[in-house]
Amino acid sequence: MKSLRNTLTSTLSPTITNMIRMDHTAVLETFHQYEIDTSPSVKKGLVNTACIALEIHAQLEEEIFYPAMRTVSSDKSVLEKSVPEHNEMRRLIAQLRSMDANNPAFDYTFMELMRNVLHHVADEETTLLPEAERLLGSRLSELGAEMTKRRLQLTAPRAGELASSTVRSFPASSMLVAAGAVLAGTYLAKRAFEGQGHSRNH
Ligand SMILES: [Fe+2]
Ligand SMILES: [Fe+2]
């Protein structure tokens, strides 16, 4: 049986669809900081931050959001291309990690990743998220809580990587906003997670 605290955590949690929108906004914020004449070390920091955020986001959707949608959605066309599109992003991310930011091809590869992400995010925000809100109803907060808990597990081992890429991109001032969003998300995730752990002990 669910404890009262678990039930409250689920009920009070942001919905999974709003969390997905917040993740998209944070990644797009990072993209906006990248300019051709930005210094290579700042470029590398911005790209690392965006790539980690994208990897965690894609995994959360694949583990929690897409499976929930597969059980209720009638038109699966957008869902079916979602995972192949994530895999294409992963391919570009791997390529970027192996590249030097001084290489002009670094800019083109990052532009290609941005184009892919913008297209994918537009599809999710115009089709999948509104559909989820129509079809998943009261499960949206419960799935949001599940996503928060899983996010903490995925983010914790990468905290060092996130911190170092934030330091590298420090001169870009609104980057701090994006980094702040990642850190605030982790903080909230940690609190929710500890709250649940606490209730299990009683
Ligand atoms: Fe996605
Ligand atoms: Fe997404």
TrEMBL record:
<protein>
    <submittedName>
        <fullName>Cation-binding protein</fullName>
    </submittedName>
</protein>
<dbReference type="Pfam" id="PF01814">
    <property type="entry name" value="Hemerythrin"/>
</dbReference>
<feature type="domain" description="Hemerythrin-like">
    <location>
        <begin position="15"/>
        <end position="131"/>
    </location>
</feature>
<dbReference type="InterPro" id="IPR012312">
    <property type="entry name" value="Hemerythrin-like"/>
</dbReference>
